[in-house]
């Protein structure tokens, strides 16, 4: 997957990047996404909720360069052409989880098939990262399906250079005529502002509302 390097000195965001990297400023935003249409479409097509949600988030992440900007393994700043989702799966026996990844696809049905294959191969493994090698171009998703929340904050220290978004979802709840899913987004201020966080949530809502189209794609 292509990694496009950024010329930091001539980058439009240079001043903001240097300031917030020095300050090490991160922030989180939690929003409730109305998944009423999305949930109905998934049920109509008899798909599983979790891989559909992972695909939905991946579409939002890959929709904007700001969400794909990071350092590569050589310490170079740039952005990936596409990111693949790395997501948690729960082990019912041990009450622990593993984190695995599945290659993204423009076709949801292909992604769902690949997800099912990875789940079959790696679920039940008592390891944090059972699927290897782990590619560089991944971002992280987790879900807490046992509890809803109105706010969630994740603290991470990775040599002060982890820039990619981290997404955490909770238990969806029924409110009047809507089904609402809490989604928390953790971002590094060096590459994303409140504007970008708002874009992400709006993308997520838009892609959820338009789910009939991409769930129906056969090619």
Please state the overall shape, judged from the principal axes of the Cα atoms. globular
* Overall helicity: 25-40%
Give me the strand/helix succession. Answer: EHEHHEEEEHEEEEHH
**What value does the average pLDDT take?**
94
The structural class is alpha+beta
- Main sheet, how many strands, which sense, barrel? 7 strands, mixed
Strand content: 25-35%
Low-confidence stretches: none
Distance between the termini: 22 Å
What would you report as the Rg, rounded to the nearest angstrom? 17 Å
Number of helices: 6
What is the tally of beta strands?
10
Q: Nutshell version of this structure?
A:
This protein has helices at residues 14-23, 36-45, 49-61, 108-122, 194-209, 211-215; strands at residues 3-5, 26-34, 69-71, 77-80, 84-91, 96-101, 138-143, 166-169, 173-175, 178-188. The chain has 219 residues and is α+β, with helices and mostly antiparallel strands.
Spell out the key features of this protein.
219 residues; alpha+beta; 7-stranded mixed sheet; 3-stranded antiparallel sheet; 6 helices; 10 strands; globular
Structure report:
The protein is built from six helices and ten strands, in the order E-H-E-H-H-E-E-E-E-H-E-E-E-E-H-H. With 219 residues, it is an alpha+beta fold. Strands 2, 5, 6, 7, 8, 9 and 10 form a seven-stranded mixed beta sheet that branches. Strands 1-4-3 form a three-stranded antiparallel beta sheet, with no helix packed on it. Helix 3 crosses helix 5.
């Amino acid at each position: 997957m292509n990694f496009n390097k950024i010329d930091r000195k001539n980058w439009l965001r240079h001043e903001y990047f240097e300031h917030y990297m020095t300050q090490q400023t991160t922030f989180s935003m939690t929003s409730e996404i109305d998944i009423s249409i999305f949930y109905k479409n998934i049920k109509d097509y008899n798909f599983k909720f979790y891989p559909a949600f992972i695909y939905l988030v991946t579409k939002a992440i890959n929709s904007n360069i700001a969400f794909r900007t990071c350092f590569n393994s050589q310490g170079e700043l740039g952005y990936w052409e596409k990111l693949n989702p790395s997501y948690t799966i729960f082990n019912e026996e041990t009450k622990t989880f593993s984190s695995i990844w599945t290659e993204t696809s423009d076709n949801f049905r292909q992604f769902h098939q690949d997800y099912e294959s990875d789940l079959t191969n790696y679920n039940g493994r008592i390891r944090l990262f059972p699927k290897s090698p782990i590619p560089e171009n991944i971002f992280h998703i987790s879900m807490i399906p046992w509890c809803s929340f109105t706010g969630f904050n994740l603290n991470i220290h990775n040599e002060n250079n982890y820039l990619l978004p981290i997404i955490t979802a909770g238990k969806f709840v029924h409110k009047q005529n809507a089904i609402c899913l809490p989604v928390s987004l953790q971002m590094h201020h060096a590459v994303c502002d409140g504007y970008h966080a708002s874009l992400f949530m709006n993308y997520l809502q838009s892609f959820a509302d338009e789910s009939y189209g991409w769930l129906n794609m056969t090619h």
